[in-house]
Amino acid sequence: MLFGASVVAVVAIVGLVVGLQAANRSSGSSGSTSGSTSGSTSSAAYLPVGSTAPSGEFTTLGGKTETIAALRGKPVLLWFMTTWCSSCEAGTQAMAQNIAALAADGVRVVEVENYQDLGQSGPALPAFARTLAGRSFTNPDWTFGEASATLTHTYNPQAYLDIYYLIDANGKITYVNSSPGSTMPQLLSAAKGLA
Amino acid sequence: MSAARSQALVAPRVRAPKALAQVLGTPWRMAGFLMASTVVAFFYTLLLPFDYTQRFELANWDYLSAYLLIWAIVLGLAMGLVLSVQVYAMRKVVAARAASGAAGGVAFVASLLPSFLCCTPIIPSVLAFVGVSGVGLYTTTGTLQHFFAVHQTEFLAASLVLLALMGWWGLRKLARATCLSEEGCATEVTSMGEATAGPMGCCSTPERNDQGAGSNGRPPEHWTPEGVMR
């Protein structure tokens, strides 16, 4: 009986894995490029695709204050994350492996820490970036910074730990998703043709 | 009949280690335990790195550290044991079904909380859904998700302790039950006053023993509460 129950459990779990895989695929391919919800964010949780990216300030690791508006003229991946978030660690490592591919499509990556790490203690951004980005840390197409409170509230109203926007050269939002560590293929696909 | 005589008519008590030996006592049962443990451990290897990917897919293994792998194996073995005890108990005594079911489920859910509630949009979405907004949303989201992010070890340890307790409790209940062995236990008294044992004596209950009760409906004279799983 125990053996039979185990076989049933195996079948059930395999079915669950297959089902969730299918669900992941369908959510990953759903219209985060057309304005509908993505697999892991709700429609009220982020700025809509097709809208103009609002401006806002962030401070780079070098201490320079930059604005989103000043980034126009070149496609930008604007990524909000926290340094104590596991998916943000994984995403930064994945970004390091794919920064060249994004740069080949003319995309500049701006990875900004949510304002004050959402009020919690985590690794300092310079150490986080240097450790996880590795040699890509000094890549000129990858900028790390800390978002202002206004910028964080504007782009990340529900305080997700990990959410990113793809913005074209004209300042239009073209794609929204989360966790680039697991959505990199979709991100690279969305970045094609932006330049 | 004296209490001492009644005690002599029931099968001797079995301690938890011996009950464990009987739960895993045959190659098929051991194979079932190992298979159940493997399946659960496999499941954990996909679930524990969930917070790295926010997805449930084989790619989660890219983030399966040695630390998470050890937890997956240990939790898989613990859950496999609980399942084995539960299935064995269900086969032996229906009343033992409560030995590990609900609490085992609680342990399973608790072990997954850090992975599912850190770094995913679940908490902020729920908070926004219930109407929390503005500074409160930011503060609460950060606090809750940070809590699950930094207390993963404690959650996993608590789950393991709960599973271990459930396994021990189930074994203890089995050990306290009579008729644990395949030979069954004493169920009737011969005309010479000697107890006999037989396969049908397994897992005696008052109702079962009532088969030998008199017309007054009282339990037969040889029945003893010691013979009932509790």
Folded structure, characterized:
The complex is a heterodimer of chains A (195) and B (230). Chain A has five helices and seven strands; from the N terminus they run αβββαβαβαββα. Chain A has two domains: 30 residues; 160 residues, Glutaredoxin, CATH 3.40.30.10. Chain A is 38% helix and 18% strand. Chain A has a seven-stranded mixed beta sheet. Chain A starts with a helix and ends with a helix. Chain A has 195 residues and is an alpha/beta fold. Chain B has one domain. Helix content of chain B is 60%, strand content 3%. Chain B contains ten helices and two strands. In chain B, strand 1 and strand 2 form a beta hairpin. The longest helix of chain B is centred in the middle third of the chain and has 27 residues. Chain B starts with a helix and ends in a 21-residue tail after the last helix. At the A-B interface, helix 1 and helix 2 of A face helix 3, helix 4, helix 5, helix 7 and helix 8 of B.
Précis, in short:
Chain A folds into 2 domains: 1-30; 32-191, Glutaredoxin, CATH 3.40.30. In chain A, 38% of the residues lie in helices and 18% in strands.
Pick out its properties:
heterodimer; A: 195 residues; alpha/beta; Glutaredoxin; 2 domains; seven-stranded mixed beta sheet; 7 strands; 38% helix; globular; B: 230 residues; mainly alpha; two-stranded antiparallel ribbon; 10 helices; 2 strands; elongated; disordered C terminus
Q: Please state roughly what percent of the residues of chain B sit in beta strands, choosing from under 5%, 5-15%, 15-25%, 25-35%, 35-45% or over 45%.
A: under 5%
* Rounded mean pLDDT score of chain B: 74
Looking at how many chains there are and whether they match, the oligomeric state comes to heterodimer
Identify the CATH homologous superfamily of the largest domain in chain A.
Glutaredoxin
User: What fraction, in percent, of the residue positions of chain A are helical?
Assistant: 25-40%
Number of discrete domains of chain A: 2
User: Count of helices of chain A?
Assistant: 5
Number of helices, counting only DSSP H or I runs of 4 residues or more of chain B: 10
Q: Round the Cα radius of gyration of chain B to an integer and report it.
A: 24 Å
The 3D shape of chain B can be described as elongated
Mean pLDDT of chain A: 84
For the biggest sheet of chain B, the summary is: 2 strands, antiparallel
The helix content of chain B is 55-70%
H and E order of chain A? HEEEHEHEHEEH
Overall number of structural domains of chain B: 1
